[in-house]
Amino acid sequence: MTQWSGYLGLILQGALVTIELTLMGSVLALIMAFLAGIGRLSRFFVLRALATAYIEFFRGTSIFVQLFWVYFVLPLAGISLTPLQAGVLALGLNVGAYAAEVVRGAIQSIGREQYEACIALNLGRWQGMRHVILPQALLVMLPTFGNNAIELLKATSVVSLISLADLTFQAQVVRSQTGNTLMPFTTILVIYFVLALIISWGVRSLERRMARGLDGVRV
Amino acid sequence: MLAPIIKVDAISKSFGAFKVLDGLSMQVMPGEKLALIGPSGSGKTTILRILMTLEKIDGGHIQIDGEQLYHMERNGQLLAADERHLAKMRQKIGMVFQLFNLFPHKCVMDNVTLAPMLTKGMARGAAEKRAMELLDMVGMADKAKAMPAQLSGGQKQRVAIARALALSPKIMLFDEVTSALDPELVEEVLNVMRKLAAETDMTMLLVTHEMGFAHDFADRVLFFDRGRIVEEGKPDEIFRHPKQERTQGFLKKIIAAGHRV
């Protein structure tokens, strides 16, 4: 029984890697989402085309293949990444493509009258976007961003395939060393679930805080 | 002799196959208070939106304060205005909307100070001081920290007026500013506008269905129908002795609907 605590430690180390991947991947995904989401609404054809190509490509191919490409094919072009870098890059780009459509949709959901108020107050396009449109759109994006973050968390398990020691990878290790399947896989099942719950709660409380005052009841 | 501050010359504008403005021309003198009346679809709101650069024109010219609005003079040629020229011209014009268009995520104070800080580089302190004066003028000083959702329609509209005034425009456009209000809230907004007309020499253009207010407020009334100005004159002439059949017909309908003239 004592040796389980050693194996549990192994799995918790994997949890740290998974959390790290999720956080860094989410940051990259957010950046890509805003770049591509706003890019799709640009006045300039080139920016629209680039954003659309990015979104369609990364939504239209499997995360699994994207990761293998980043890790095994890029080195052929002289770009070698560590497994962590490759994982963050593939996850961030992949989830960012989905989230970009969330950004675009949320921006477009803001009524025309808000844009017209910006023009009437002589705000520049970017000033209006930054101070008027995006703050309101962010509230619309948040719930779906929560979904995207949970998707990203679950997708991190693919990195075990490029031998990055995340939760799933460590569970495999424990299983092969002990011959026990139930314990490691049940443990990581619970850990994934708890991590997803934390994301849900975090996003919901952020949502509540941002919505404060908008309905005229809570201030 | 004073030059007109607004000079509209043969403007046309279509939405699809529908011709909203059909070779419209008009002039407004500095400080003049104008009421634009007429049936819906007659083009009166469209001309306000064109002056605010919210709609593009299909043809014609507009001069504001001696400068072309939709065109720029470069080496003796008239070119289509770019964003920078439009931004320069917009400084002269402010607009208040039927549905207020306040920023729901910002408190009253921030609604008023946002544009002066961003477009005129005013410091927060100076912008807030000016905002308080304006909010005081519209009777909203005690609500400076409130969110728009906590205000009544009339209060929102008074904040919207203060917000537009904060940029000190020479011309103010009011687009049916009381149409969305409950009847008992109309008067508080009209009072603010009366005060504004009495205390400033701003040029004011007002699209309205409040005929009684138009009569008292305006120096001149323009009756719009089918994209043209059918008749114009002093309020008494238009409301008491309209010459054109279409004006008479319109006023009759309005009176039948229970509006005071």
Automatic annotation (TrEMBL), chain A:
<protein>
    <submittedName>
        <fullName>Ectoine/hydroxyectoine ABC transporter permease subunit EhuC</fullName>
    </submittedName>
</protein>
<dbReference type="Pfam" id="PF00528">
    <property type="entry name" value="BPD_transp_1"/>
</dbReference>
<feature type="transmembrane region" description="Helical">
    <location>
        <begin position="182"/>
        <end position="203"/>
    </location>
</feature>
<dbReference type="InterPro" id="IPR000515">
    <property type="entry name" value="MetI-like"/>
</dbReference>
<keyword id="KW-0813">Transport</keyword>
<dbReference type="GO" id="GO:0043190">
    <property type="term" value="C:ATP-binding cassette (ABC) transporter complex"/>
</dbReference>
<keyword id="KW-1003">Cell membrane</keyword>
<dbReference type="InterPro" id="IPR014342">
    <property type="entry name" value="Ectoine_EhuC"/>
</dbReference>
<feature type="transmembrane region" description="Helical">
    <location>
        <begin position="6"/>
        <end position="36"/>
    </location>
</feature>
<dbReference type="InterPro" id="IPR010065">
    <property type="entry name" value="AA_ABC_transptr_permease_3TM"/>
</dbReference>
<feature type="transmembrane region" description="Helical">
    <location>
        <begin position="57"/>
        <end position="79"/>
    </location>
</feature>
<dbReference type="InterPro" id="IPR035906">
    <property type="entry name" value="MetI-like_sf"/>
</dbReference>
<keyword id="KW-1133">Transmembrane helix</keyword>
<dbReference type="GO" id="GO:0022857">
    <property type="term" value="F:transmembrane transporter activity"/>
</dbReference>
<feature type="domain" description="ABC transmembrane type-1">
    <location>
        <begin position="15"/>
        <end position="200"/>
    </location>
</feature>
<comment type="similarity">
    <text>Belongs to the binding-protein-dependent transport system permease family. HisMQ subfamily.</text>
</comment>
<dbReference type="InterPro" id="IPR043429">
    <property type="entry name" value="ArtM/GltK/GlnP/TcyL/YhdX-like"/>
</dbReference>
<keyword id="KW-0812">Transmembrane</keyword>
<keyword id="KW-0472">Membrane</keyword>
<keyword id="KW-0029">Amino-acid transport</keyword>
<dbReference type="GO" id="GO:0006865">
    <property type="term" value="P:amino acid transport"/>
</dbReference>
Automatic annotation (TrEMBL), chain B:
<keyword id="KW-0813">Transport</keyword>
<dbReference type="GO" id="GO:0015424">
    <property type="term" value="F:ABC-type amino acid transporter activity"/>
</dbReference>
<feature type="domain" description="ABC transporter">
    <location>
        <begin position="6"/>
        <end position="251"/>
    </location>
</feature>
<dbReference type="GO" id="GO:0005524">
    <property type="term" value="F:ATP binding"/>
</dbReference>
<keyword id="KW-0029">Amino-acid transport</keyword>
<keyword id="KW-0472">Membrane</keyword>
<dbReference type="InterPro" id="IPR030679">
    <property type="entry name" value="ABC_ATPase_HisP-typ"/>
</dbReference>
<dbReference type="InterPro" id="IPR003439">
    <property type="entry name" value="ABC_transporter-like_ATP-bd"/>
</dbReference>
<keyword id="KW-1003">Cell membrane</keyword>
<dbReference type="Pfam" id="PF00005">
    <property type="entry name" value="ABC_tran"/>
</dbReference>
<dbReference type="GO" id="GO:0005886">
    <property type="term" value="C:plasma membrane"/>
</dbReference>
<comment type="similarity">
    <text>Belongs to the ABC transporter superfamily.</text>
</comment>
<dbReference type="InterPro" id="IPR017871">
    <property type="entry name" value="ABC_transporter-like_CS"/>
</dbReference>
<keyword id="KW-0547">Nucleotide-binding</keyword>
<dbReference type="InterPro" id="IPR014343">
    <property type="entry name" value="Ectoine_EhuA"/>
</dbReference>
<dbReference type="InterPro" id="IPR050086">
    <property type="entry name" value="MetN_ABC_transporter-like"/>
</dbReference>
<dbReference type="InterPro" id="IPR027417">
    <property type="entry name" value="P-loop_NTPase"/>
</dbReference>
<keyword id="KW-0067">ATP-binding</keyword>
<dbReference type="InterPro" id="IPR003593">
    <property type="entry name" value="AAA+_ATPase"/>
</dbReference>
<protein>
    <submittedName>
        <fullName>Ectoine/hydroxyectoine ABC transporter ATP-binding protein EhuA</fullName>
    </submittedName>
</protein>
<dbReference type="GO" id="GO:0016887">
    <property type="term" value="F:ATP hydrolysis activity"/>
</dbReference>
